[in-house]
Amino acid sequence: xxxxxxxxxxxxxxxxxxxxxxxxxxxxxxxxxxxxxxxxxxxxxxxxxxxxxxxxxxxxxxxxxxxxxxxxxxxxxxxxxxxxxxxxxxxxxxxxxxxxxxxxxxxxxxxxxxxxxxxxxxxxxxxxxxxxxxxxxxxxxxxxxxxxxxxxxxxxxxxxxxxxxxxxxxxxxxxxxxxxxxxxxxxxxxxxxxxxxxxxxxxxxxxxxxxxxxxxxxxxxxxxxxxxxxxxxxxxxxxxxxxxxxxxxxxxxxxxxxxxxxxxxxxxxxxxxxxxxxxxxxxxxxxxxxxxxxxxxxxxxxxxxxxxxxxxxxxxxxxxxxxxxxxxxxxxxxxxxxxxxxxxxxxxxxxxxxxxxxxxxxxxxxxxxxxxxxxxxxxxxxxxxxxxxxxxxxxxxxxxxxxx
Length: 404
Ligand SMILES: O=C(O)C1=C[C@@H](OP(=O)(O)O)[C@@H](O)[C@H](O)C1
Ligand SMILES: C=C(OP(=O)(O)O)C(=O)O
Description:
Number of strands: 21
CATH superfamily of the largest domain: Enolpyruvate transferase domain
Number of domains: 2
Bound molecules: shikimate-3-phosphate, phosphoenolpyruvate
Structural class: alpha/beta
CATH topology of the largest domain: UDP-n-acetylglucosamine1-carboxyvinyl-transferase, Chain
Radius of gyration: 21 Å
Number of helices: 12
Helix content: 25-40%
CATH architecture of the largest domain: Alpha-beta prism
Oligomer: single chain
Shape: globular
Largest sheet: 4 strands, mixed
């Protein structure tokens, strides 16, 4: 096993970091670029998930392995289902074969698609035979993953009659659906969202369009945590927009209560430790719209010795690992106390952090990156540190740049 010892940070945390493009925006735009070759994309993410997505879209092989990339698995399922004269097997890592996809496959089959399960019913790998789909209405459960909905929305304008999607139940991770719709709208695709249904009008071709991907806000979360845990620190990150398409930009508001001030200047964001900790406002933070920053927030609160109660976390169980269990295991090794249910996490305040604990990362990039900022308090060991490449390949270089 590879181990990375991260020594206790002695210097003041400061410096500038240029963060790669959002993997969520990139993976949507890569699909859209394949459907609309007039689309030009800049500041593309260098994450493994985006590299895998790009390779999959240009692959001539009959089997595509998308590793751990959830968005690639889900978005490509619809993409290949409507790609006429194609026949491929879409598979992934061991974990991917245990991440559910039935809701999306059922929706596509109800539209007329030809998709078969090759191993377990409801899970990858899938055999997809591309077909022209002529139906234009589908009902879908919105409570398990918004990626199923984004997947259908991305290919919807290429259907001859467009698509109307009706949701059953509560919708999870809504900002990601809004991101998909904003990107479609930016290409001139007509759409509407009324209560429980989204309609997308057909659009066979678009005018030439350049889209610059904003840097990744989920990746920015680790700098918010570092700054919150390090008195007098200041880090500048780029390139960001004040009106972001990414729901994780809510970090700026959340971390105000954790003593971090956010200032936008052109495309650079300055994160400054103000020393004004306001933990009382954190209790009952509902992260249903921003599940990927849950790990970061829990570790920041633990490092600050304060409690937190997070809700809206039901999707964490089906991500790269069961993130609720992973968080509980690792925080408890460090001496903290965590209680979890299927959708909530409660952290008790703690006065001490155990030193030199080896943090397991469970093939989950966010476990490695979320625990790294604890080095502001104690030396820590991160197991399999290279997992970070799933979303942020240069994480350790950038982390050392601002902490050495
Ligand atoms: O559409 C997207 O780009 C994503 C949606 C979210 O997933 P869920 O909708 O499954 O919560 C998020 O956790 C994931 O990292 C990226
Ligand atoms: C959940 C994540 O990704 P995905 O679902 O795309 O694998 C993530 O990046 O935290």
